[in-house]
Amino acid sequence: MRSTRAALIAATAITLAACQDETPTSLGADLLPPQPLTIELELPWSQFGSNLAVFGGYSRPSRMREGVVAKAYADTLNANTLVRFASYPASASVRDSDGTLRTDTNISFFGGYFVAFFDTLASTNTGPVTLQFGAVQTAWHPPSATWTSAIDTVGDRRAWPEPGGGPITPMVTIDWNPTVADSVQFFLDSAQVATWSDPTDPTTGARLELLTDGARLRVVGGALRLNTRSSINPDTVPILTAQAQQVTFIYDVTAAPPADGMRVGGAPAWRTVLDVAVPAQLTGPPALCAAVGCPFTLQPRHVSYAALGLRTRQPEVAFQPTDSVRLDVRPVLARSALPKSPLGTSLVPDPAGLLVGPALFGAQAGSLVEVPITNYVRAILSGPDPAGRPPPTTIAILSSNEPSSFTFAEFFGPGGPNEPVLKLVLTVSPPMELQ
Amino acid sequence: MTKRAAIVPLVCLLLGAGPLGAQSIFSSAGIGLPVEGLDGRARALGSFGIGLQGPMLSPTDPAASARFPLPSGVIVAQPSWVDLTEQGSPDHRYFQGTRFPLLGLAYPAFQGVVTVYLTSVFDQGFDGERPVNVVLGGVTVPATDRFTQDGSVSQLAVGYARRLDARTAVGISLARYSGRVDRNLTRDYGTSTGIGRVEPYVSAGSWRYSGEAVTGGVATDLFGSVRIAASATWSSDLRADATSGTEGSDRTYSVPLQLRLGASSVLTPGLTVSASAVRADWSSTGANIGAGSSAGTVLGFGAGIELSRARLLGREAPLRFGYRRVGLPFAIGTEDAHERVFAGGLALILNQSNGVVLATVDLGVENGKRSGGTFTEDFWRGTVSLRLAGF
Q1: pTM of the predicted model, to two decimals?
Q2: CB contact under 8 A, B30 and A370
Q3: Residue B23 · residue B124 · CB < 8 Å
Q4: Are the CB atoms for A362 and A414 separated by under 8 Å?
Q5: Nearest CB to B203: which of A25, A305, A429?
Q6: What single string gives the DSSP state of each residue in A246-311?
Q7: What is the ipTM for the molecules in this complex?
């Protein structure tokens, strides 16, 4: 019996030893079907695009939670940054005379400073500029404030007494040199600090403005540092922070929609919308016809790569990007509802969007930017989904976060040598046959 | 024990194993590599499964089942390990796989024995790669074509065998071909395209096989110790119908008449010799297969000896040795391909009653070489079969 069992185990082991199947792999290529053909096509606008339109006004600057200051930049642009601070801290942790850390709720503030942080790469100045910091005197509404309107909400529209957020109570003027630091401090006395102690007051707020002509600065953050007097240990001066609760910027130039181009980005943001059609049959080029015959019916699997080819152009200097632009492409789900149509999920493979350098909208304007939309083109060729819904044939080109920058990108529109193209990489082969 | 103890591991094997594992690069030639539904005993004897002593469940010897006194069944597992080389290339490719080439049942009825076989006929699995260069964005970049073929042709046969007298038996079986093959070519552009992600291209097709075959055979005992058997298989065309969604066309392959002859003789008590031969002219199929393959006439011969009184671990364990050489119907390129093996094996009789074997495991181990054109395969092939009777 024992030997029988051993024999069976041995037989089982022999068989199991090769149970992990490994398919024979050919050493040569002769046994494989004929090579597929990979071919690149570039469809002109007339063969794939139509109904291009540019829409603006998406989102609002306050959502960026950063600021812009400019003074006669490009002889046109003036911009100020407005800040409303959060409630001041109500307590501080202080060590008493015994060295024990205690919470002191009986604190007072006797001055401090406002610190502003700048993006030195995105700012246009290379030398010192003069900045002014002051207190807003007028009731204002951060989400709706513009250069001319302090409040612009339903049923309540109030203009600034002076366009640009004025008048203000000037507090500190200081020079900032980007080669020395990426931040600047505006020192304040006790009375000035007390100005913003009540964030529920609609007039509370601070304005940061640029006094030097010809520059545009990107303000990426700011906070109010408070010198604090403790009742527990008067010799200790804790510095507490009141964060910028709401930040926005207002500017005096209104960009007109481009008549002959495409625009993406800005704050509020611009979107470019266009209809896309992909030819279902191809009659060329000759290499394609020689390989698979023409007319050739294009199927989704034949599209290995598809991209919108866009040529950059320089926008108005005031809005010219000084930092990278991230592009996104999304299907427009209800074209008739534009400009308020909902959008589908992003078609760009990188969730962060397609990164385009700022130089392409300046010195290198005219460069080709390819926005990949392979899966979208495949979906168009696939036709209706299992539920019978046709694929959306309208797409919107937008910035990956709206708004992501005060500046915007522009591309040449249809009707010229730099018009958009649809680039396709197709892979085709005769039908798979049995030997 | 012992039948239940024997069945359990074999069933586990069947459940645990995947689909048929491909076992040769010659699976890529023509309509594949022939797979013979032979048990461990026939393999160990270098036989083509015809003309062996005793009752036998062999699709190629339909008359042999007439001698089963009890309901019987056989199941066969066949692992193999292959080393593939190509002339002029120092590279070696190693692969392995297990297949189950035969499941057979015999049941005495209608004054004879009714048989059912499920057998493999052709193995078609293989894959390959081809590096290519493509131009993307004006720049030449590398890409890879990957091809996978997965499939096989199998046969379900129902037969009947009957003894005409004490020495002679005849048998016939009707079979239907079935099976499927999937062919898939993928061009993979990799990640270094220069233009971002380029989706792979896939061209694929699937075909289902169908067809019919009839096998007839006769076996007779001469001089009390010599058995001679012959069989012939006629097949309709093997049809490959493209499945829905497959752009490729249907195909039809002519399958030639296959003739087999086998004999065995008990020279002395405990010593049996056997020999068998096959012939089939596949030339006419050559017109139906791809340009990369060729078809020719298959001639095969095998011989072996069996030491039936050998013992192992105190049990009766017949020892077997054999040799055979057979041409392959399809070759890669234009040169003929063939396979030759040296074989050995033994039987482990698990249970017997009154001289009737009720359960036995037959083991066959073959070391062989397949060659044709520029390809050579050195392989080890094991065959494990379990035969049960009286259930």
Answers
A1: 0.79
A2: no
A3: no
A4: no
A5: A429
A6: EEEEEES--PPPPSSEEEEETTTEEEEEEEE---SEE---HHHHHHH-SSEE--GGGEEEEEEEEE
A7: 0.83
